[in-house]
User: Fold this.
Amino acid sequence: MNARFTRCVGLTALAVALWGCDSGTTPDPTGPPPAPPPPPPSSPAVTASEWVDHVNWDEATTVEVQMVETSGTEMSYSPNDLSFEAGKPYILKITNPASNAFKHYFSPEGLANLYQAVATRKVQTPDAEYKAPYFDAVELLPGGSLEIFMVPVLAGEYDIVCTIPGHKEFGMVGTAAITGGEGYELDLELATDFDQSLTSDPRKSGSHAVWDAAVELTVGMAETSDAFAFAPPDIELMRDVGYKLELVNPSGNASKHYYTAAEFYKKTVLRKAEDSNAEIKAPYLKAVELLVGGSTELFIVPTEAGSFESICTIPGHEELGMTGTITVSP
Assistant:
């Protein structure tokens, strides 16, 4: 092959390659598809609600953690070193096997708080779903399980511990790392009219005297063929009195139901919500949804007198009659 022919072939090949790049075609159509572009360095999501809406929950990754008791003095999380990628949806499933003898916490330790570094859609047990601006801790009873639907946002390494006396020393500690997410922000949307001193109110402790005389009340969810209702629809409480407010959705019902009382919840000391699987702790609740056959108890102390609306926020349920009032007297 002479030199002139060789140069022509080379120029022709170069022209084809350049034409392919300029036209947007792939020179080798049988090769692998091009890699997707890298994610942007920051996200338009800032508030917890925006983060929850920003992701595709059908693509959520499930991460499972078991609470392990090897003996009465050997306890652990399995696995005890979790890793999450910022900006992606996860379902963190935590289980305390029925064979265990003790209940266990999954709590943050130290100033770096995992629960305040994630946008939480909800905490769900087989009994109920709980919504809050963020959660302080969850405690699993023997045989209990729950799922935390969350979007990790703020990068860092976070310590986890069981705060029941002795359990940390027996080995029930762990870490959770959030990687990536440079420039990501997270506004937990704590209500501006929420009195943040309530997060450290001494009545959040189960040893406080207010719980020695706590009043027990029950609100059921009633269904007929053409109507829904809270039973009773209206309840009367006293300010600064401790209550165990049980919410029940009977197994004979066909629908799950919310007990949403957002304005009331913000005006209470919330010690915990407790169902047959877990105890849930948060600064305050936004809503509680009872699954069919589910029940939960809200350990609360009203702090402000007034009249507050309760409602089931599932579309159509308010129109069918599922509304009520919570009246708090001075």
In short: Confidence is low (pLDDT under 50) at residues 1-27.
